[in-house]
Amino acid sequence: MRRKIITTADGSKTIQIEDWNEQYHSVHGAIQEANHVYIKHGLLFYYSENKRLPNQPISVLEIGFGTGLNALLTLLTAQNFGHPVHYVGVEAFPVTSEELQELNYPSELHIGSSLFEALHETPWETVNHISEDFQLIKQKKYFKEISEVNTYDVIYFDAFGARVQPELWTKELFQIMYKALRQNGVLTTYAAIGRVRRNLESIGFHVERLQGPPGKRHMLRAVKR
Questions:
Q1: What average pLDDT does the chain have?
Q2: Edge-to-edge, what's the strand order for the sheet holding 13-17?
Q3: For 146-170, what is each residue's pLDDT tens digit?
Q4: Per-residue pLDDT reduced to its tens digit, 14-29
Q5: How much is the pTM?
Q6: Checking DSSP bridges between strand 152-157 and strand 134-139, what pairing results, if any?
Q7: Measured between alpha carbons, how far is residue 145 from residues 70, 92, 148, 162, 185 in Å?
Q8: What is the dihedral of CA 59, 60, 61, 65, to 10 degrees?
Q9: Which domains does the chain have, with CATH numbers?
Q10: How far apart are CA 106 and CA 145, in angstroms?
Q11: d(CA 222, CA 112)
Q12: Helix/strand/coil (H, E, C) string of the chain?
């Protein structure tokens, strides 16, 4: 499929799949969306709701590692909050090195490029210590192949939209996510359509519809009670 790099409304870049008219991030702002949906309403919400010892790691699973933007923002958040993060990013179709060279997240975030490069240059299927506060495992596989049980505190569900890949938003796949989360674990996603909410609720999640990032009215957060 044809792909190109585009600049979103907040100045940060993303990848567009032209044949689908689908982007890896919101055209209204890639960094804005990631911070709002996954950091504010995912990771930071989990921090606030669950009292953890300062050095006790938090385990994060990302559904769609993609450009590594969510991982980079999580790494920076972990450094600021003193909670180490064990991060697993699942991706069946990694982005190319040529695409990564065109992404401008370090300059938009006013940081050096070394951390972003480390996220992508470290090998797949192994534990990589990117920083003192951030451990990364990248897994190249389909989401339906995830088999962990009671393992993760937070899930970033950042798959392509249900319009183009409805098979990624089914009860069957959300059941895998439910099993993978620990009690009181949080799944957060940019999606807000009714059938996604109903699928999450049908398997036991407590679901909230929240204000969405710029350019989008709503998003969903689901908690395993």
A1: 95
A2: 3-7, 13-17, 22-23
A3: 999 999 999 999 999 999 999 999 9
A4: 999 999 999 999 999 9
A5: 0.96
A6: unpaired
A7: 21, 10, 9, 19, 20
A8: -140
A9: 27-224 (3.40.50.150)
A10: 32
A11: 34
A12: CCEEEEECCCCCEEEEECCCCEECCCCCCHHHHHHHHHHHHHHHHHHHHCCCCCCCCEEEEEECCCCCHHHHHHHHHHHHHCCCEEEEEECCCCCCHHHHHHCCHHHHHCCCCHHHHHHHHCCCCCCEEEECCEEEEEECCCHHHCCCCCCEEEEEECCCCCCCCHHHCCHHHHHHHHHHEEEEEEEEECCCCHHHHHHHHHCCEEEEEEECCCCCCEEEEEEEC
- pLDDT for the residue numbered 54: 66
In the predicted model, is pLDDT for residue 50 greater than 90? Answer: no
